[in-house]
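User: Quick one: structure for sequence A, then sequence B.

Assistant: Sequence A:
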Amino acid sequence: MQNSTTSEHTECTVCGTSSRPNQAIDACPACGAPIVSITGSLESITPARLEEIRTQVESVNERLLSAGSKNAESAFNLGCGMSLVLILLSSVLVYFLAGRSWLLVLITALMAMIAGLWIVTLLSSIARSGAIRYTYENEVRAEVEHFVQANGLSLTAFEALAHESLTENAPLRKYLGSPKQESVDVKSTLQE
């Protein structure tokens, strides 16, 4: 866990509790999260360093997208195969129970296809979000925390850059905190 430090106070990034930096504490008094004083902010980072951080943000986000896409595709394919079997079985059943009416078979098959497609899409969406959540919690979170610590950044600075670099629907944005005041115009900083 990272904690951001300013000249006035240290703020826990887990629960937001503030304390004075001259207090000798190793853990947040409110939640017990370890306190690491880091002063890196976006304003103090060179353009080359910003680009390196942006590359890391995009790499992590791409990994989340890849994990989600792979699971969504598998769920969709499995669901389509199962739907096809159910459509065929229901069509055969309707054919024999409804006096061999091809019109009823056709109507049943179309309704079953529509319902099947809706269910398969829903299951695919659930599989995608589950895979993204699993990948973030078991791989990406630790990687981001390690990257932040290794580069002397505050988690707030990393999150601000990620929010400015990623599109609104990027999966990584869902797991980052809301953008803070530390945000800076990345494009103008990189052009300097």
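Sequence B:
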Amino acid sequence: MENHGIKVIHLTGAEEQSEYDRLTFAEDLVRQLPENHEGRNSWILNYSNREDANKMRADRGIKWDAYHQAAETSKQHRNENSTEMKTKFVKETDRKVTYIIEGSFDGTFFNIKRFICQVQKQETEKETQELADFILSKLNS
């Protein structure tokens, strides 16, 4: 099977035998968060293939990409129960590292599409944030 340039995860012997892989384990951890938690719902919407996630995507007009095992959020989708999903770039700072992330927002959920870049640290934190803001202004224009 070709990997088409995609990083392939190799299952451990225990994962193959139990049919309980890292993705399922991660999803079970995510599902322990409260049902109104945005991160939980965004993750389930984008990566879960369980019945409730399929319903969540169907309600929002988002299709499942079987090849990539993820929601198709790159296009703008619309149905009678939701607003148009708009592509948006945001910056996120975690432990003094700033990232630029692309996603789509339907008014309720921010669905992460992909990681764009890590902003290189400047001499000061203020300069790093100014650089991130500059990148965002170019991406969002």
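The CA atoms of residues 124 and 130 lie 10 Å apart. The first strand starts at residue 64 and ends at 65.

User: Thanks, that's what I needed.
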